[in-house]
Design brief:
The structure is a homodimer.
Chain A (H helix, E strand, L loop, with lengths): L4 E7 L12 E8 L8 E9 L4 H4 L19 E11 L9 E7 L3 E4 L8 E3 L16 H13 L7 E4 L7 H11 L2 E6 L2 H9 L5 E4 L7 H8 L4 E6 L3 H9 L1 E9 L3 H4 L3 H7 L6 H5 L3 E4 L9 H13 L7 E5 L4 H8 L7 E5 L7
Parallel strand pairs in A: 8-9, 8-11, 9-10, 11-12, 12-13, 14-15
Antiparallel strand pairs in A: 1-2, 3-4, 3-6, 3-15, 4-5, 5-7
Helix pairs in contact in A: 2-3, 5-6
InterPro entries (chains A, B): ADH-like_C, ADH_N_2, ER, GroES-like_sf, MDR_fam, NAD(P)-bd_dom_sf
Pfam family, one (chains A, B): ADH_N_2
GO molecular function (chains A, B): oxidoreductase activity, acting on the CH-CH group of donors, NAD or NADP as acceptor
Chain lengths: ~350, ~350
């Protein structure tokens, strides 16, 4: 085999505020490191852009569940890859896998990430890119958050923010399948249309067009209150939701994207959440969660969701950027809500021989 | 029986900000209403001052779990009483009871509150006033919040705010009994001494003497983080706690006394809680609760706590105000932290015959 060469996207320096193209750099193709014993060499096919990646771009101040990226090293994230060489048992050349990989043409995956690689059956009849979304981390996130953390029941009134995103679009559909009434919020007319016409939300609204009265927007759509809030944004939306929760309501805190790009000064100045007394008055349970804690539920989730996908009851909208060179812009766009649906990057690896 | 006359403390008008003596009035003795069929006429012996009473003094804006007081009508709350006449089955003249009563010498208790009256065995060997505290609502609140909502386990690192109060002092002792390491915060040196020397907290601090660095005060006392936070105050303390929670920590939200006396303007200006992203990073469960939802656990709680009290493993400190005329000042003092221990009012009913 000819020597493999790989381009890579590295973080140039830690980010404060919104990330820009200047924070990342695409390095020209260089020889791929020799694969150590126990590692897996993969060719990356799809890379996933996810909100949780933003805190990893910040200078690490507080302990987090996920280590910060290292300036100068490739950005890492979920992806779909083809195995080139493997010295890990159970994974062989030619296998398709999904898991944590690097933002590069080829990656050498080492422990502990080799153990997290999940094999994909090539003939399973769904697009490979779905393993960065509905069949990957965002899918299990939606499933765990809605069913387990949110303890959703048929008939519940469900609200989802960032509802057209990788996770939100699934929560809405899972809620509809369970017989809940589900309302979503998003940041453009196009997304609101998608929520209602494509994903089957019962109602939806553009949070930018409610004259700042988010509590009123929710009151109108949930006159009897919200049983389950699937939280993706935080800040003012959370404040408004707290005023509109039903007694014994549940808030599954998946993410707080409104907070990730605040500068230190902005955090200091204005991002507190008011209305916390509603937690007591309404006896609300509010619980943060992350998908890695619930990996053991993946087989159960996959078995449940696969027939829904194949028979058209669950659809999935992706926003596909083309090529590794487009990856930084795709990730940046996520934090401005430019993506419509799950943001993926499709790699078109240059011939290296 | 001679005609009974009763003084009463009424709310004069709704309160904004801190309540003052001007918001309440002690009305002179007037004949007690005829007891309707099914009601219970009681002579009040002890009245309880509790933080939850403050939201009931505000003009009702939002739905709450407890109705607002009615201006001109007596303030209501928990108390210990002796039954004078009863047309409710199971309750007879001469019985001692605890439950919801009025701030007056004599009260006519009607449905649904008659069903909430709990009989006290006169020979049970504990002070009657304890039924406003360790053997009443605050006791069950501490038990449910710590064991059930907080899911405390032996060895847990436990933090309690407002730790010398009616509920906090019990949470600290229950934590010690379970084999947890427990730290409390309070607002004076006297209270901090009480926490360590009387209630057996392992450590304690005066939140007013930490130069505003509550997060640092907690970090010093919980270098490995907090497993269970029993929340009584909210605001800045909650912000600091969020930064110091352990992964999979639990926050039992009992009350948020820092918020109750804020004016509308103050609420608008500055009371948001930051650091909510810790909920996700640490996968924290934060849950509001109120004692009335858990009444069915009272017999279990009483059976558990009674031997601890009798054998001296659980002690209870009360701050007893003397006479109905002292009740408004006692309630007001609670919101300024003037009480040391559980605030009770002992009634010395004037002879009315």
């Amino acid at each position: 085999m000819a020597e493999l060469k790989s381009r890579r996207v590295v973080l140039k320096d830690y980010v404060e505020g919104y990330p820009t193209e200047a924070h990342m750099e695409l390095l020209p193709a260089a020889p791929v490191d020799e694969a150590e014993d126990g590692s897996v060499l993969v060719k990356n096919l799809y890379l996933s852009c996810d909100p949780y990646m933003r805190p990893k771009m910040s200078r690490p101040l507080h302990q987090s569940y996920t280590a910060a990226f290292v300036p100068g090293a490739p950005i890492t994230g979920y992806g779909v890859s083809e195995v080139v060489r493997s010295s890990t048992p159970g994974v062989a050349a030619g296998d398709l896998v999904w898991g944590m990989t690097g933002w590069e043409d080829y990656s050498v995956i080492k422990a502990p990430f080799t153990a997290m690689l999940t094999k994909i059956q090539p003939d399973d009849g769904v697009p490979l890119s779905y393993y960065t979304g509905v069949l990957g981390m965002p899918g299990l996130t939606a499933y765990v958050g809605f069913h387990h953390i949110g303890s959703a029941k048929p008939g519940d009134a469900v609200f989802v923010s960032a509802a057209s995103g990788a996770v939100g679009q699934l929560v809405g559909q899972f809620a509809r399948l369970m017989g809940c009434r589900v309302v979503g919020s998003a940041g453009s007319k196009e997304k609101v249309d998608l929520l209602i016409n494509k994903f089957g939300f019962h109602d939806a609204f553009n949070y930018k067009e409610e004259d700042g009265d988010l509590a009123g927007a929710l009151k109108k759509r949930f006159p009897d209150g919200i049983d389950v809030y699937f939280e993706n944004v935080g800040g003012k939306m959370l404040e408004a939701v707290l005023l509109n929760m039903k007694v014994h309501g549940r808030i599954a805190v998946c993410g707080l994207i409104s907070q990730y790009n605040l500068t230190a000064g902005e955090k200091e100045a204005d991002v507190g959440v008011r209305n916390m007394t509603s937690l007591v008055a309404k006896r609300v349970r509010m619980q943060g969660f992350i998908e890695p804690d619930h990996k053991h539920l993946y087989p159960e989730y996959r078995a449940w969701v696969m027939p829904h996908i194949k028979e058209g009851r669950v659809v999935y909208v992706e926003d596909v950027a083309d090529g590794l060179e487009a990856a930084p812009g795709a990730l940046i766009g996520l934090f401005h809500g430019r993506n419509v649906g799950k943001q993926v990057v499709k790699l078109t690896t240059p011939d290296t021989e």
